[in-house]
Design brief:
Distance between the termini: 49 Å
Strand order of the largest sheet: 1-2-3-4-5-7-6
Shape: globular
Order of helices and strands: EHHEEEHEHEE
Number of helices: 4
Helix content: 25-40%
């Protein structure tokens, strides 16, 4: 008996970040950073990150994790920029990509941003074609390019 031709889809869940998730979230971020797809080689806790990690119930930001069982396999965050926009950051651990996790994370984040009445900006590497396709599919448009990164906005 042969194996099915269709890829196996993993079950995942989305939920708000909670402080006990801190270590596992940072480990997931570091796994994605190690691939060279992020601006930094490892998690660097900015003041916005520290605020989100320590005050998950604060309404000024949005931090969502994707889980498979008890493992954090992705995240999405919206942090205020101070310029009337929210900055989107997202990552999915390599083994879990192409399962719909990124799409689900972006959809929930954009719904939250819409409820806040704020536009969203992001930066992604110009060679990160899967991410660019994802963002375009959700209605992001390119507004500039800097140091090998596209700057995009929504709406």
């Amino acid at each position: 008996m042969g194996l099915p031709d269709a890829p196996i889809r993993m079950a995942f869940a989305l939920r708000p970040y909670q402080p006990p998730d801190r270590r596992a979230l940072i480990e997931a971020i570091n796994r994605v950073c190690a691939e060279g797809m992020m601006r930094t080689p490892c998690f660097e806790p900015t003041p916005a990150w520290e605020h989100a990690l320590n005050r998950p119930d604060c309404r000024c930001h949005f931090l969502l994790v994707a889980t498979e069982g008890s493992r954090i396999v992705g995240w999405c965050r919206l942090f205020p920029t101070g310029e009337g926009t929210l900055e989107l950051g997202i990552g999915v651990v390599a083994f879990y990509r192409y399962q719909g996790i990124g799409s689900a994370l972006v959809k929930v984040a954009l719904d939250w941003a819409s409820d806040q009445g704020m536009p969203v900006i992001l930066e992604t590497r110009t060679d990160n074609l899967p991410a660019i396709r994802l963002f375009i599919r959700f209605g992001f448009r390119t507004i500039g390019q800097t140091n090998g990164h596209w700057r995009m906005c929504y709406p």
